[in-house]
Amino acid sequence: MTNLHQPLPFKRGPGMKNRFMLAPMTNQQSHDDGTLSDDEFHWLTMRAKGGFALTETCAVHVQVNGKTWPGQLGAFDDRHIDGLKRLATGIHAHDSLAVVQLFHGGRRAPPELHGGQAPRSPSDDLESGAVGLTTLEVHQLRDDFILSARRCEKAGFDGVEIHAAHGFLICQFLSPEFNRRNDAYGGSPENRARLLDEIIAGIRKTCGDSFTVGVRLSPDQNGLVFGEMLNLARRLLTEGNLDFLDMSMHDAFKWPQAPEFADRPATEWFAELSRGDTRLGVSGNLRTPDAVRRVMGFGVDFVIIGRAAILHHDFPVLMQQADSFECRSIPVSAEILRHEGVSETFVNYLKTFPGFVQD
Predict the structure, then answer these.
(1) Which residue blocks in the chain are alpha helix, DSSP H?
(2) How many CA atoms lie within 13 A of 45 on its CB side?
């Protein structure tokens, strides 16, 4: 099994000093106009200082109407560049790679955040009230992802990750349930992946040769088909345009829902794929040192840590000092969270998850 504290080079740009990536986590700590706040800066740079080799931001929206949570960081306007530059500099000060996750909420963007305006999606959606994008609007969305990546590069970030998971807009395009289009962006699995492919190609063309590009995928749920996602991952891993693939599993040890694949954990199916120079990371229920070691045993290249990084800003350092250290369990007190660099706003958001914060 790979040593968790061994460096990991990327095809493009600087490599990771160890095998720990901070998961992109919603925290609602920035300003309503999408500009960076001191709280979000502190939260992220504290994780970089805590030993994460790659520090990734929350989901950063690329269009105004893609905003899905209050206090969400943005990259849809040049006014965001100064804050992003400050954040990239702060992360780099602790020898961590700085990566922005680019995002649009699609049908999951609440109308109340947009003056009652209906959310947008690949097709009209009765459940959410979302309105399907026109072909010209799809092209504009693609261009806005690319332009946002260019802003991140200008701000000094090492790269971006395209959020194509968990039922948000690009994931909705990948889903035959939510994408019922009859143009070039709907129908076959290849057409439903066209938007993602064009965003990747556009970032590669627009940004520098050393700019790192990753994608976050989910294997199933949210209308996705496991076999299609396996085939998409196989192609993305081998065609050479990506530097890393982030498989977000919810639970890295759970077996697929599809009966024809339900004979072993989903992670094993993705870890066995040929991947050339593209790196594979996995997240999902990696809350203890034992879970981290187990998932690395599947043969992935790095781990993506979420909840454990909220509870321990220095999770990688603690594992290096003693890889069997006892991780905090939930619920935890608000005082402990504040000690770990979690602002009052973030604490209040975490209270919406039952059993996370002590009463």
Answers:
(1) 38-49, 81-92, 135-154, 169-174, 189-192, 194-206, 226-238, 266-271, 289-296, 307-311, 315-321, 334-339, 344-350
(2) 18
For the chain, what percent of residues have pLDDT higher than 90?
A: 97
Under DSSP, the state recorded for 178 is T
Please, are residues 169 and 61 in contact by the beta-carbon 8 Å criterion? no
Q: Are 18 and 323 in contact (CB under 8 A)?
A: no
Question: What is the pTM for the complete model shown?
Answer: 0.97
Tracing tokens 């603690």 back to the chain, one arrives at 318
Burial (0-12, 13-18, 19+ Cβ within 10 Å), 272:
exposed
Among 249, 250, 301, CA closest to 275? 301
Q: What is the pLDDT of residues 315-358, one digit of tens each?
A: 999 999 987 889 999 999 999 999 999 999 999 999 999 999 99
| Cα dihedral 131, 160, 54, 46 sign | negative
Residue indicated by tokens 């998409």: 232
Q: pLDDT, tens digit, for every residue of 170-183? A: 999 999 999 999 99
